[in-house]
Amino acid sequence: MTGGSSQRRLRLPVRYVDGVWESAYGGIVPVHAFTTGELIIDPASISDPAFLKRMRTRSKFKILEQGAKLLVSLSIKEWESFSEEQAKLLIPFGELRHRISLDFIGSWSASGLHFVPVRLGPPDKRQARRLETETGGLWLLTEGPHAKGLLSTQVILPEGVSDEPVASLNHAFTVLSEIFEPWRISHTGNIYSRVLYQEKNGQWYPLDTLRDAAMDKNDKAIANALWEDFMTQMKPDLSSPTGS
């Protein structure tokens, strides 16, 4: 159950008895009123097939449109390894520090931190079929109310890096890392924390905010709209006799 301010959550074994959740150790679960949490249970225990179906429904939500600008974060250590034209693409952390949510960059080191802008491009043929779209963008893949991952169409890299779009955000990060972070042994990275998107309030947030539907601040219009889509999808159809 969750309800306290601690970042470390407790995993409590419970059982459902006569309409009440009891602690497996005995007695009612001792939590404050309106505490929220998640149940991890065997699907076979769900008594409503329609509810189980909703929890397993896979969907996709378009989050960003074609042409949307993203920022890829990079750690620059060896300036002599890339050209002057490429160096001009780099945006130092200092220029954006007041427009990046500090809640999400506590683990970042500002030393050498720079950003390169990229854009979401059109879909290739495979992406157009999979996403059933004629235009590019970024989609959140879900199963029930849970975010399962992000899927983009092609990504446009800046001039001086590549004249051709790359197939994905992962590929974009790899190409940029190979150029600007030659000191790294591996040029893969976690795009959910290394790629930023811009909210309507002008602030930049890691893609984790969208993937995890983090709703801790009311000023995240895109993320909040995404959460509303989740809730709409999860509501049963009350016009149906079974509520499915």
Explain what this protein looks like in three dimensions:
With 244 residues, this protein is α+β, with helices and mostly antiparallel strands. It has 8 helices and 11 strands. A hairpin with a 5-residue loop joins strand 10 (195-198) and strand 11 (204-206). The protein starts with 13 loop residues before the first strand and ends in a 10-residue tail after the last helix.
Sum this structure up briefly:
With 244 residues, the chain is an alpha+beta fold. 23% of the residues lie in helices and 23% in strands.
Estimate the global geometry from the Cα principal axes: elongated
Low-confidence stretches: 1-6, 214-218
Instruction: Give the tally of β-strands.
Output: 11
Question: What percentage of amino acids are in beta strands?
Answer: 15-25%
Please report the number of helical segments.
8
**Main beta-sheet strand count, sense and barrel state:** 6 strands, antiparallel
Our measurement of the CA-to-CA distance between the termini, rounded to an integer number of angstroms, reads 27 Å
Give the radius of gyration: 22 Å
Task: Provide the number of structural domains.
Answer: 2
Structure keywords:
244 residues; alpha+beta; six-stranded antiparallel β-sheet; 8 helices; 11 strands; elongated; disordered N terminus
List the helices and strands and how they pair.
Elements: E1 14-17, E2 20-23, H1 49-56, E3 58-65, E4 69-75, H2 84-87, E5 91-92, H3 93-96, E6 113-120, H4 125-131, E7 137-143, E8 146-152, E9 155-156, H5 169-180, H6 191-194, E10 195-198, E11 204-206, H7 208-211, H8 221-234
Antiparallel strand pairs: 1-2, 3-7, 4-6, 4-10, 5-6, 6-9, 7-8, 10-11
